[in-house]
Amino acid sequence: MKQIQPDNTKQPCCIPEASGKKVSSGAPKTVKKPLSQSQNCRDKPSRLITLPAGRGLVGTNFPLLSMDGEGPLRQVAIQAFEIDPLAVTNVWFQQFIDDTGYITDAQKYGWSVVFHDHLKSTDGLPRVANAQWWVRVDGACWNHPTGGSSSLDGLKDHPVTHISWNDASAFALWAGGRLPREAEWEYAARAGQGDVRYPWGNEDPTDQQESYRCNIWQGDFPNTNTAADGYAATAPVDAYAANPWGLYNMVGNVWEWCADTFKVNSLKRNAKLRNKQAVEEGEKLLKGGSFLCHRSYCTRYRIAARSGVRADSSAAHTGMRIVFDNR
Asked: Check: CATH 3.20.20.150 for 45-103+160-325?
């Protein structure tokens, strides 16, 4: 049985790491067809947006969560690439499952973590030690988002969730694309606006009606969610206004996996230790924050914000967006 183990070297995690995982009895199922980029079953979506080559900004000189390695601000050369303006939906992920028979990590392990308010009862269910709002739920996975008999009714155009880095990479390969690198993700999110905090500029989102620019928490995390914007959990992938390059929900809604191994860009001793830990534990990078982010707890809905989690970890707010090489 896999264990929910808090990592005391980090801030209480937005995304709990499923350390010490062990597959439940019975051999894991395999895919029906080999996953090969040359044998993928789907054409590229017609909605893709081509981003031009340029100099992209990564990070910030004003980090709010320095332990995450948000700084320093630096320039990176970016080659032209194509990006999906939308996160991967439940409908598209279902096509992947139908074509390949792929079994996600959450399905292999038999559980994932769900936010406590989204369950009818949490009696007797294990919680993450230093993030009590996360509850281990048997059977929770991409098509049973709150476990048990829950379904995707009403969620077809919402982002797929309970997705690990391994799952996201397998989907991207099938689709003929790949996960974005952090520099590409930030380049896309900034949309040519320079050193901005958010995809729309520098104005901080608030709990007020006129500021619903992204799907994040409203209220006092983790106790009171007013859901004033209409969404207590995920929103449709095209909800809210797009950024100037036409990309939706680059922050908020669900965390998006990137190709990178998590790394802190610093020469300080604690950064070296953190990087060593990330390599040893196979941590990968997530960007964008989720519907659970709020200034009353953390502000990881900023473009420069980031998080590192084991590649086999999943949660009710982890999803993905894919990119394609510009050929």
From this structure: no
